[in-house]
Write a structure and sequence with these properties.
Length: 183
């Protein structure tokens, strides 16, 4: 019986850590690394998985070393990782910004007649007074299907939505949300 893998050479890749890829059980089996020619996935040996999971940060520059092997039947190259060394954060890399909060304000005729335009003005004024205008996107919308509660606005913070909220309360919720993100 012949060995289907032929050892090619040692490798040492340097690139930006993009995250882990798991299998169906949720175990982190592969590293995703961005290199000059694209993205590679490298299988992590079991003995390294736990320590890497706790020490690597997305966006960090890392050096990965090991052996490359050629599958003589398929012609594909397999990388066997022996070690990963963090080199630090790339200075030109900007960490992803948290998603902005969004406020949807209905401007359909029913809501406008019941104070929708005033609500929009009051929201903008309150957010400006508290210095929050850059932290939130205000979108005017069509009907939000809540005509009985007009004028309508919805505050979206991450996966949460707040309805029937006064502009002062919206500003307070937004400040609280931003404070939690900074912690």
């Amino acid at each position: 019986m012949s060995n289907k893998y032929l050892t090619l050479s040692e490798f040492n890749l340097e690139g930006q850590f993009l995250g882990f890829v798991g299998d169906s059980s949720g175990a982190c089996k592969y590293l995703r690394v961005a290199i000059a020619s694209g993205e590679v996935r490298l299988k992590i040996p079991k003995e390294l998985r736990c320590s890497l999971n706790q020490h690597l940060e997305i966006g960090e520059i890392i050096s990965v070393f090991g052996l490359s092997k050629l599958n003589s039947h398929t012609g594909k190259i397999k990388f066997k990782v022996y070690g990963v060394k963090p080199l630090g954060i790339c200075p030109s890399q900007k960490m992803p910004l948290p998603p902005k909060a969004k406020i949807l304000v209905c401007q359909k005729s029913g809501c406008r007649k019941r104070g929708g335009q005033g609500l929009l003005s009051e929201l903008e004024k309150t957010l400006c007074e508290r210095g929050l205008q850059d932290q939130v996107v205000i979108e005017t919308t069509g009907c939000l299907k809540r005509c009985n509660n007009a004028p309508n606005c919805i505050l979206q913070l991450g996966h949460k939505e707040y309805k029937k909220v006064h502009p002062e309360a919206i500003a307070s919720l937004l400040e609280s949300h931003l404070y939690k993100l900074q912690q």
